[in-house]
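notes to self, project folder thing:

trying the whole complex as one job this time. last attempt i did each chain seperately and stitching them together was a nightmare. two parts in total, labels are on each line so i dont mix them up again. if this works i'll redo the older ones the same way
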Amino acid sequence: MKLPEGVSSKDFNAAMDEFRGIVGAPWVFTSDEDVGLYRDAYSPWWDEPEELVPSAAVAPATVEEVQAIVRVAGKYKIPLFAISTGKNLGYGGSAPNLTGSVIVDLKRMDKVIEVNDKRNFCIVEPGVSYFDLYKYIQDHKLKVMMDIPDPGWGSPLGNALDHGVGYTWNAYRDHYGSHCGMEVVLPNGELMRTGMAAVPGAKSWADNKYGYGAHVDGLFAQSNFGIVTKMGFWMMPEPEHFLSCRVSVPGYRDIVPLIDVVNYLEDQGLIGFPRYASSLDPMTLMMEPERVQGDKELLAMYSKPGVATAEEYEKYARSRGIDYWNVLLTFYGPKDAVYANWAYAKKKLAGIKDVKFEEVESYALPLDEATKQKVHHQVALGIPNMSIFSIGARSKVMPDPADGHVWLGSILPRSGEELIKAHEVFSQAMHDLGISPVVVGPFTAPQEWNHRTFIFMAPFFVSRSDKARNAKVREQYVKLVEIAAKHGWTEYRTGPAFQDVVAKTYSFNNNALLRFQTALKDAIDPDGIIAPGRGGIWPKRFRRDA
Amino acid sequence: MKLPEGVSSKDFNAAMDEFRGIVGAPWVFTSDEDVGLYRDAYSPWWDEPEELVPSAAVAPATVEEVQAIVRVAGKYKIPLFAISTGKNLGYGGSAPNLTGSVIVDLKRMDKVIEVNDKRNFCIVEPGVSYFDLYKYIQDHKLKVMMDIPDPGWGSPLGNALDHGVGYTWNAYRDHYGSHCGMEVVLPNGELMRTGMAAVPGAKSWADNKYGYGAHVDGLFAQSNFGIVTKMGFWMMPEPEHFLSCRVSVPGYRDIVPLIDVVNYLEDQGLIGFPRYASSLDPMTLMMEPERVQGDKELLAMYSKPGVATAEEYEKYARSRGIDYWNVLLTFYGPKDAVYANWAYAKKKLAGIKDVKFEEVESYALPLDEATKQKVHHQVALGIPNMSIFSIGARSKVMPDPADGHVWLGSILPRSGEELIKAHEVFSQAMHDLGISPVVVGPFTAPQEWNHRTFIFMAPFFVSRSDKARNAKVREQYVKLVEIAAKHGWTEYRTGPAFQDVVAKTYSFNNNALLRFQTALKDAIDPDGIIAPGRGGIWPKRFRRDA
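result (full assembly):
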């Protein structure tokens, strides 16, 4: 067991005893076997001394127990790290930023407080998973749609606090942005509610975000100012109809006008998640191995020493009659309006030479059980599942069998020109760093999960046995963060291993933002009890420069 | 001249001299005549010792000048109060929370940094008004629509920082919520940027709100953690078509299903601002005096000692064939989709007995100049003007000629049942407080300016000559805030005169939220330089209980 820095065994054991008194002995975990379950399954430091590991875990069932735990932690100066379902794989899992922190596992706090399908919101505890919430909605026959990320085992609350994202309509995809009101245990153990939740007896917890005065909610996401114990979310009412349609364009540079039109449609709220893709992306193609195998020209391009250019890819695509880019547009609403919006989209896109249009899926809602199983992209309909996640995670479609991945997700402005520049910069940088040309190239499509934001994603594959490989991944990742930042592209999210590096790229005026966040942290959590290091914010006690 | 508490004349004069050195003598205002212009024209303490008045004003032209001013203020411990256009009448105007504060008038910082109609955003300085921004958009023939409040002379930046609201589609109406990235001068004079604005060279200032880590922007709105000098906003691209349609229902309780359906339409993004109204509202009727005059039955009801009930109003309405409630629905988008959405709305509303539907305005966009002048409700089309404001402000349609008004704006959940309860509670309370029954009654419609939030508005009319009346208004206002809070309804916004009272209604756990905000304030602004008291947050130096 690795104790937190500066905490004696005696104090630590005394704290564990007090924790047992609060939650009951079975809910305090200190054996290596139990605590091992809270390791980051995809840690880029697996089994190395630097691996970020907790010392113990405690699982409260109520808010009062969380408060008591925080107070005991304060008394013995033991850093805590709260998780909701802890399934944040690829972004750190359930492991803390500081080795020796005690995990506060909130999985037992799994109450759905309210789901309202007249004002279209929910209020949930941290341990409620997307699967749980979906079941609740189905069981109660409520007419609201969830917005969910790829893996359904996560928690709406935890995902939002990690700035997680989804697939449905507009602002609902921004999970933090669609939250409304919080209950938080502060570092001193006090309970605070924000927005309308701060008004005793108010029924508008999840109607109005701000209430009155300074809006403090932002301090509790991707950060460490408290442990959130309840959170409200705006939800989308179930529409009458869902339609998805594919728009395909043949040329590499057709992505520029394609994005312009899609932005126009999206910012008016005519479409949901626009799912950009390239038919040339090896990640996509590997899911259809029969298409790749035997195509020596394509395989040669993928393994070309150096970087195959967009021109080469385009030439190949045109020779085979393959369209370079496509985007799946989704429409939610009354059936007639959905089809009118699709007709309008076609009209606005008609100017792109040789553009092709294809209707993919069209469903009246609600879906019956048989249809649910047939749906290509269930998350677009708010149906939680694990299918995309399980393709990505450790499966054979990834280059080299890997034990896990960490994501680099750089924020780009929503423009084709900027995407093309990113192709050039990332392809070259990754080539220079010795990364396989199948990972990122002129075929990498932007992800618009977060409303109005392009994320340029690159996976890095880590190992549980090959430490040299992990060392290389860490080095590559950090270098890419730095190269991207030079072009104004920085990450929207990252695991504890890289949070300091990422936070420091938001560097305007000698990291004024980080210094401001840190000054706030020192005021609210002088002993650094809550998640030291999370979001790049280190309390004075653990700050290297303090 | 009233100096700020605890500041000597000598220090004050030295600061003014330094301010003159920074901005030039003509931009430092200390004469009573000049400083008088920064009084709140609608102060409920007009000409009384308690009136909140500044000591002086300084008008910087650049961010560097703002920084220098803040540093000088810190040196002499002089509280500052920044305004953008200062036109926030009804909510405090340009006057500070603490008498003797120096106004930092940002009107000269009037640069439109960027308006982008491919990614649909703008970045502006504080002194840019809605009129300015509109002119810029027109001059550059940009295809974006602004979301604006009633008076066009305000500032997008200032309005957003006051949690101001507008009239177009969905989330754009929430002006703070639609902001994206800030530049702020902190209380120590340092410059900070947030979100993507914190990334040197990034082009995504106004694409992505969060960047990475704790999101601190909320601390700068309705609050006092810094002076915001630049701000990005998401904008709506100009749609192809605008349609507005009126839905009328005859019965008082028809508001319940009406609201349920409108919520459903809105949360799917099918409609813009739903403008609820009652044909029985005296405020509305006074704009059509010919309808009221001579209708003795109606006038008797308005002046009825006690409170006329909803039943009485409904009986009157039915006897005259007047519909009790109506809502103007607005649709933005492709013409065919707009009409399909309207057809769908009619279908969903058809279940309300005797519901009536009427198409009001239908325009292809962009509008030509002649059509712009004809439009009934220009703000719904993003055209800034002063017409609604000038009706409300000091005009003859108000009960008793008044010199101004202060608004009570209580947040209600979006439900008809809750609105009915609010009618009962507010009507009774206002009757008990001796307020005219024409101000609020069972005819008061909810305002849904802020996406997903009902605001229940009540104006209070103040005088420049009748101090007894103002005293009564202040007493009534505070009592109503307290009565409303008992029912879970609290204010979304208020002027400095009432900010402490309102902030304290967010009282969960012994005002944990306000205590948290105050602790942050003390850490960031230990000398209480920036807008002490704003948003109910008093720095230690000025705190009565400190």
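what i see at first glance: Chain B touches chain A through 107 residues (CB under 8 Å).
need to look closer tmrw
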